[in-house]
Design a protein that fits this description.
Number of domains: 2
Largest sheet: 7 strands, mixed
Radius of gyration: 21 Å
Strand order of the largest sheet: 8-7-9-10-11-13-14
Structural class: alpha/beta
CATH superfamily of the largest domain: Response regulator
C-alpha cells in the first residue's frame, strides 16, 4: 500500500495559534494592482531565474520564529548556483519580510509578483498570508510553503509543503472545514501504552479551539483527557503542574506559545511531574532546545516532536547529510530549515523539467508540474506529498509520521523510521 502523509492539523496548529494570537490587521491593495497575465516567459540563455521568498522575519511573535524555511531554501539555492544552476542559469532569490502583518504581506506579494516578476514563490512562511488570493489570481506557483493558515487548503496554484486533498477552489477545505488525523495520539498509545493525556491551553479563543481539536482526537483514540486552562495574561503554570501530578498524566499536549511551554516545563520540574512525553511539533523541533528549556532539565529530556519530514539529525541519510553540510555555518539547525531546503529542491525539479521544454521555465509550466497527482519525497526527506482535489473529505486515511525525542548530549533522536511508522486513522474536522 502506498504510504500516505497526514493532513497537518496537529503539525501546523502551533503556528495557527500564533496567527490568531498575534496577526496584525490592515487594508489590502486594490485588485487592479494584481490584474495581469503570464509575464515570466522564456528568457535568453544565462538570464537568472528569479524566485521570491516571503518570510515574517520580523513579527509580533519574535524575530527568529519564522526564518527557518527561508534559511534552508537559500542554502539549497546557494549550493545549486555553485554547481551551475538550472540549465546554465543561476537562481536569483528576491526576499521580502512582511513584518508579520496582512498589510506587509500584500506589499510583499505586490513587490515580488508584479514588480520583480518572480516565476514562483518558494518556502513561504507568513504569519498572516493576506496576499494568498492575489498570488493565486496571478497564477504564480507557491511551492513548499508552511501552512500556518488555511491558504494552502483554499487556493489553486498554492502548494504547501505537506500537500492537500482539498478542492482548493477558493473555499477553505471542504465547505469551510479542514481535516486532521489522529496518528500522533495513536502512536503514543500503541508504542508507549499511554492512556491519560493532558491538554494545556490559554483562556483565549484560538488557543481553546485548538485544545478542543486535540481533545477530540485523543478521545477518538480512547484516552482519558485532562483539560487544563490558564489565564493568558497571568498564567499560573504551578497550579497546572500540581494537577498534572495528581492526575498522573502520561502525555502533555499544549495549545500555548513557546515561551509558555518553557514556563510550563519549569513548573513541571519544580513540582516533580514525570510524564512519558511532553509532545511538541515541527515548529519547535530545533537545536535551540538547551537554551529554550535551560531551567527544566527533566521536562527537556521528556520532549518529543512529531512531523512529516526526516529528522535533521539523521546524518546517516545522504539527503540529510547534504543539507547539514550546506547549512554548517548556521548558528542553529531546525526541522523547518530542512523543510525549506526540501521546498527549494521541489522548485528545482519542476524548473529542470520545464527548462527542456519549448516554453522554458514559466509560471504555467511550473504550475503544471506541481499540479500532478504524483507523490514527491525530496529524495526521502519528506513523507510522500500529493496534491489531489477530492470532492469530499476522506473519513479515514493511512498516514505516516516522523517521531523524535530530545536527549541531552545527543540532540533529537529518531524513534523508528518515518516510512514504517504508519497508521490507518480517522480524519476529524476542524
Amino acid at each position: 500500500m502506498r504510504r500516505r502523509r497526514p493532513f497537518r492539523a496537529v503539525e501546523a496548529a502551533a503556528a495557527v495559534l500564533l496567527l490568531a494570537l498575534s496577526a496584525a490587521c490592515g487594508s489590502r491593495l486594490p485588485e487592479s494592482d494584481f490584474e495581469h497575465g503570464e509575464r515570466a516567459g522564456p528568457a535568453p540563455d544565462g538570464t537568472p531565474i528569479r524566485v521570491g521568498i516571503i518570510t515574517s522575519a520580523t513579527s509580533p511573535v519574535g524575530g527568529d520564529t519564522f526564518v527557518g524555511p527561508s534559511e534552508g531554501a537559500k542554502a539549497w539555492f546557494d549550493r545549486l548556483n555553485a554547481r551551475g544552476g538550472i540549465d546554465g542559469r543561476r537562481v536569483e532569490v528576491r526576499e521580502c519580510d512582511d513584518g508579520g502583518s496582512g498589510v506587509g504581506n500584500n506589499t510583499c506579494v505586490h513587490q515580488l509578483v508584479d514588480e520583480d516578476e518572480v516565476v514562483a514563490l518558494v518556502a513561504t512562511t507568513a504569519l498572516d498570508y493576506a496576499g494568498a488570493s492575489r498570488v493565486s489570481h496571478a497564477r504564480v506557483p507557491d511551492i513548499g510553503g508552511q501552512p500556518i493558515g488555511a491558504a494552502y487548503d483554499t487556493y489553486p496554484h498554492l502548494y504547501g509543503i505537506y500537500g492537500s486533498l482539498a478542492p482548493r477552489d477558493g473555499t477553505k477545505g471542504w465547505n469551510g472545514k479542514q481535516y486532521g488525523g489522529t496518528e500522533v495520539y495513536r502512536y503514543f498509545k500503541r508504542e508507549h501504552g499511554a492512556r491519560t493525556a493532558a491538554v494545556v491551553s490559554y483562556n483565549q479563543a484560538a488557543s481553546a479551539a485548538y485544545a478542543r481539536l486535540v481533545e477530540r482526537g485523543l478521545e477518538a483514540e480512547g484516552y482519558e483527557v485532562v483539560s487544563e486552562q490558564v489565564d493568558f495574561a497571568l498564567p499560573n503554570f504551578r497550579a497546572v503542574a500540581a494537577d498534572l501530578k495528581e492526575q498522573g498524566a502520561d502525555l502533555v499536549f499544549d495549545a500555548i506559545d513557546s515561551h509558555g511551554n518553557a514556563q510550563l516545563c519549569e513548573a513541571m520540574d519544580d513540582a516533580g511531574v514525570r510524564v512519558t512525553a511532553k509532545v511538541t511539533n515541527v515548529q519547535n523541533w530545533s537545536s535551540a532546545v538547551p537554551d529554550d528549556y535551560k531551567d527544566a532539565p527533566r521536562c527537556r529530556n521528556a520532549l518529543w516532536a512529531t512531523g512529516s519530514s526526516r529528522n535533521y539529525e539523521d546524518t546517516d541519510q545522504e539527503a540529510v547529510r547534504e543539507f547539514r553540510d550546506a547549512t554548517e555555518g548556521l548558528e542553529t539547525h531546525s526541522q523547518w530549515q530542512l523543510e525549506g531546503w526540501a521546498a527549494a529542491m521541489w522548485f528545482t525539479e519542476a524548473a529542470e523539467s520545464c527548462a527542456g521544454s519549448g516554453a522554458g521555465v514559466t509560471r504555467a509550466c511550473l504550475d503544471a508540474f506541481m499540479n500532478r497527482s504524483e507523490d514527491y519525497t525530496a529524495d526521502g526527506l519528506l513523507v510522500p506529498v500529493r496534491f489531489e482535489r477530492l470532492a469530499g473529505p476522506p473519513t479515514t486515511r493511512r498516514t505516516c509520521l516522523s517521531v523524535a525525542r530530545w536527549q541531552d548530549g545527543k540532540g533529537w533522536v529518531s524513534q523508528g523510521d518515518m516510512d514504517d511508522t504508519c497508521f490507518d486513522v480517522p480524519q476529524l474536522p476542524y
